[in-house]
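User: Fold this; tokens only.

Assistant: Input:
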Amino acid sequence: MNSIPYGRQDISDADIAAVIETLKSDFLTQGPKIQEFEESFAQYIGVKYAVAVSNGTAALHLCALALGVNNQSKVITTPITFAASANCIKYCDGEITLVDIDPDTGLIDIEKARKVLEQAEKGEYSGIIPVDFAGLAVNLEEVKKLANEFNLWIIEDACHAPGGYFVDSNGEKQFCGNGDFADLAIFSFHPVKHIATGEGGMITTNDPELYKELLLLRTHGITKDADALQENHGGWYYEMQELGYNYRLSDMQAALGITQLQRAKSSLEKRREIAMRYDKAFENTSIISLKGGTGHAYHLYVIQAKDRKGLYEYLRENKIYAQVHYIPLHLMPYYQKLGYKKGDFPIAEAYYDKCLSLPMYPTLTEKEQDFVIEKVKRFVNG
């Protein structure tokens, strides 16, 4: 049996051909493939606007900038996420407040977020960043009620969940990143994600003003749009109107993203099939998995094991490279310097002590998955 990682990219002949074709074209960056990828992704998600950027972290940073985060801003997010979900606020000199998680889902506990807001001064908080952890969609309808009550903006971190959804109070599917509730949403195209471009990210929104601001900020704050120029000296003329960044995606990456996106639905179906096989295999055992559901996008399949370290090492001995997602942010030395300490978020810590992400990717074969299941059961059952 070959080694089995927790996640793996799937690169097809069509992907390779698309990249080669772009390499032979006139544009390697800032060309037509960027807009094509953005439009295709927006259509897939069901949103008006999409802005392609260099990675998911850049997407978060640009969102914070576009929403005006500064040293007067306080923002809520979860400790169970990749560091960038919180770091983007620190990049803008804002302050992060972490809120504990729901033990069944791993998602931010909305009622605990409410308590933080109720205990704060009016207007003390600016926004909230819910995370669709592992691919399970946060109920943004509930988050939006909270945001409306306390005058917050919402950035949905949907890096784990393109194609995922929750069902709203009207019984309608609300797809992650569709802009119906969040001001902005972000996605990542890291190799282990649903859509791989090497590195890459996307921001989605239904707000035309935020969309224009994002386009400006991702390219140094520079525009050549004749309608936006304060002066116009000729066809060569451009203006730097804000302090922006070079957070652009290349045409080669966009070309790869376009062909990856064409397989997104079938890949998502395969992830859900793999999750169902895990669910069935672990029925009537002591193995506990995070809450699933039909709208789950299954970037990760997370179980809870009493002897997580032992299981992790046993699986590695058998060339199964499971992973831990995530070490709670408040246990990181950087955030402990800001005043956080062990014991602040007991549910997140209890989750961390037991969590393990099993292999989950569309090209995982039934034989490989059966091998993983057998080894997990053997260790757990002693």
